[in-house]
Write a structure and sequence with these properties.
50% helix, Rossmann fold, 5-stranded parallel beta sheet, 16 helices, two-stranded antiparallel sheet, 343 residues
């Protein structure tokens, strides 16, 4: 038995042992029949290995506990009460429909896709991760910032140069289930010259009547995305097509006040930065009158991203001092703050 024949026989065994839909197995067996050797065989092996790795019919069992969801949102996000209330309402509807799927089927229309709209650093992306955590689902993020070609989402045909699956199907493979949360991040920031085509793909993704048979060009067969919970984010809605907006429920993210940022900085971001830097909690203290300068190093900022960067910068510099032999403790004051925030 030559090497090519042995490899083809091995592929047949893989397909037979995989729990694939019958029509997919048949498609793969037919491809084996018409494949000989060389690069054609190599491409087929890569293709079949990818198809077999997809989670056909594998779903996470949702955690349908609204009190747990509230606790997770409060644990991960300070303030944002109106936003959290809207998320809890959304999850309540999802829970009721999960409990009574027959009624959900009879209901007209479909729940819109949540879209968090707001400036950088206002918590849009982390809210999506909290929703996934509350449901106990895997999460995958697809960044749209600068996306320049719809092929990135749909994939390249298997027999073309540079053939590979699109970002959507890759996200499904990464999540290892067919019902993950997929975060469509910054959908307003796609490249202008391809915006129309990319918005067309988004319409298909977000429309329940279409996404149950999403066609990735690499796969060359429809994949059911109807169990995916899509969540979108954007800085504003100006660059989002009307057809996409019709399928979204925009939730506007408020700016944080200095008072809110102070609490977030002390209770959420500073412990995170200390943990990332690997230093002990008792090594660092920040003088109370120094916090306003940390909150606004460059003037007003609606989000908390620059605040997190400043705290991470402080903690990294302390980490270096510790490694160089300075045992601390370290107190950040108005007089030495510049040293810790520099470069």
């Amino acid at each position: 038995m030559d090497s090519a024949h042995a490899q083809l026989e091995e592929l047949k065994i893989k397909i037979a042992q995989a729990n694939l839909p019958p029509e997919i197995s048949e498609k793969l067996f037919n491809l084996i029949k018409i494949t000989s050797s060389g690069s054609e065989l190599d491409n087929l092996i890569t293709y079949i290995d990818f198809v077999i790795s997809l989670p056909f019919g594998k779903n996470t069992q949702d955690i349908l506990d609204i009190n747990r969801a509230k606790q997770i949102l409060d644990k991960n996000h300070y303030g944002l009460q109106s936003v959290k209330n809207r998320i809890l309402e959304y999850l309540s509807v999802l829970i009721l429909n999960k409990r009574n799927p027959e009624r959900a089927k009879r209901a007209e229309g479909h729940a819109p896709i949540l879209a968090f709209i707001g400036l950088v650093g206002t918590g849009k992306t982390s809210l999506a991760y909290s929703i996934a955590e509350s449901l106990g689902r895997s999460v995958a993020r697809i960044p749209f910032g600068g996306l320049g070609d719809p092929v990135t989402l749909r994939g390249q045909p298997r027999n073309s140069i540079g053939a590979e699956p699109g970002q959507i199907i890759k996200a499904i493979k990464l999540a290892k289930v067919s019902n993950p949360v997929i975060l469509l991040d910054e959908i307003d920031r796609v490249a202008a010259e391809h915006r129309v085509d990319i918005m067309g793909v988004l319409v298909e993704l977000l429309d329940p009547s279409q996404n149950q048979s999403f066609l990735d060009h690499y796969l060359d067969f429809p994949y059911d995305l109807s169990q995916v919970l899509f969540i979108a984010t954007a800085n504003n809605t100006g660059n989002i097509a009307t057809a996409v907006l019709d399928r979204l429920e925009p939730i506007m993210m408020p700016s944080y006040s200095d008072e809110e940022k102070l609490i977030i900085g002390k209770n959420y971001l500073l412990p995170k930065a200390i943990g990332e830097a690997g230093i002990n909690n008792n090594l660092l203290s920040i003088d109370e009158i120094t916090w306003p300068q940390i909150l606004r190093p460059l003037g007003f900022d609606s989000g908390i991203r620059s605040l997190l960067r400043s705290l991470q910068n402080i903690c990294r510099k302390i980490a270096r001092k510790v490694v160089e032999g300075n045992s601390g403790p370290f107190k950040i004051t108005q007089e030495n703050l510049g040293e810790y925030l520099s470069g």
